[in-house]
Amino acid sequence: MAVQHYQPTKIIFGTGELASLGALVRPYGKKCLLVTSAPEPALAPLFERAEKILRDTGMEVTLFQHIRPNPLTTNAEEGVQTAFSCNADVIVAVGGGSVIDTAKIIAFFGREGRADWAYLKAAGGDFREQSDVREGVIPLIAVPTTSGTGSQCTQAAVISDAVTNEKTTFFRQEFFPLAALIDPELMLTLPPRMTACTGFDAFCHLSESYINGSFSPLARALAVEGMKYAAEALVQLAKENQLTYREKMAWADTMGGICLSNGGATIPHFLGEMVTGIVPQINHGASLALVYPAYLEEFFDDGQAGPGIRRTLAFIGEEGNQPENGLQAKETMRRFLKKIGLDIRYSDFHASPEQTEQLRQMICGQKRFECTARIMRIAEAFLGE
C-alpha cells in the first residue's frame, strides 16, 4: 500500500504552556503581528496576556483584531496590508479557526502587501499536492482557543467571498503553521454551546477522514483514538467544565487536524460549508450537526463509506444497541447530539425562504461528487426540518 503522511507543524501541548509563547516566537525576529478576533469580554484578558508575554521578550507587537466568524476575503486583505505595513517578521494567531485560517492568508501574502486570490484559485483544490512552493512566507505560530477546527495543524484556510458569501477552502503546504501552542487552559472560558459546536467539528474531522479510508495506518490509529476522546469529552463537558476533559478534547482536535490534513473531509463538510456561507447565523459546527444525521441515513449501506460509518457510530452508540440500518444510524447520531447540547434543526435558525432556495440551488449545481442525487436527498432531508 502506497501512502503519504505529512505533518510539519511542531506541537507544544500542555496546561499553562502559553507562558512559553515568548520563547517560542523570539527566534523568528523582532516584529510580531498578533492576530486575534475582536476582543470580547471573555477573551480580552487572554489577548492582553499574549501581547504582554510577547512584549516582555522585547518584541514590537502590532495588533490586528478585525476578524469575524466565517471570515471574509476583505478581513484577510486588511490583515495582509497590516503585516506589510509593520514589516512583520512573524505572525502569532490567537483564536479559533476563523482567526488561524485568516492568519494563514496574511502570512502567505504579508510580505507583498496584496492578497492574490487568482493565484490561490489557480493552484487548484488538491489538499495533498501543489505545483509550486512559495518563497518568503512569514512564519506563523498558532495558539488555538477552541477545540474543533484543527486549523493549527492543517494546510487549509477557509475564506468567504465578501460579495457572494460563497466559501472556498484553499490548500497550500505553506499554510501549515510552523508551530502550534496548545494550552487546554485557554478553552475553559468557552461557553457550552460553542464547546459542543467546535467539538463536534473535531469529531467530524476524525470520522470523515476515517470514512474516506485514504490515509496511512498511522493516521487511522489517530482517528480511532481521537473519536474515543471526543465522544467521551463532549458528553462530559456538557455536564461539567473540567480541565481533564478540556485536555482530552484538545487532543481530539489536534488529532482531527492531523487526520484531516492527510485524509480529507467528505460530504458533511462539503454541505456544511455551503450552509454557513449562505446562512451566516449557522456556525460551522452547527451546520455539521444539521447535515450529519441525514448523511448517515443515506450512506449507511454504501459499499465504500458504510464500513467506516458503522465503526464511527460504535464510538457514540449505546453498548449492545448498534444501528442496523440508515434510520437507526440517524437516530443514534441524534441521541448523541442531544447529549452534547446540539439537538438542533434547520428551522431553529429562521433562514429566509430566499436563503434556503439559494442554498438549494447552490447544492444542486455542485459537481464535486458524482452522487449528486444522493447529496440532494441529504439536503432536502435537513432543509425540511
Could you give a short description of this structure?
Helix content is 49%, strand content 10%.
Structural descriptors:
14 helices, Rossmann fold, globular, Dehydroquinate synthase-like, alpha domain, six-stranded parallel beta sheet, two-stranded antiparallel ribbon
Task: Describe the 3D structure.
With 385 residues, this protein is of the alpha/beta class. It has two domains: 10-187, Rossmann fold (3-Layer(aba) Sandwich); 192-383, Dehydroquinate synthase-like, alpha domain, CATH 1.20.1090. Helices cover 49% and strands 10% of the residues. It has 14 helices and eight strands. A six-stranded parallel sheet has the order 1-8-5-4-2-3, sandwiched between helices. It has a two-stranded antiparallel ribbon with strand order 6-7. Helix 2 (44-56) links the parallel strand 2 (31-35) and strand 3. The radius of gyration is 20 Å and the shape is globular. The mean pLDDT is 93.
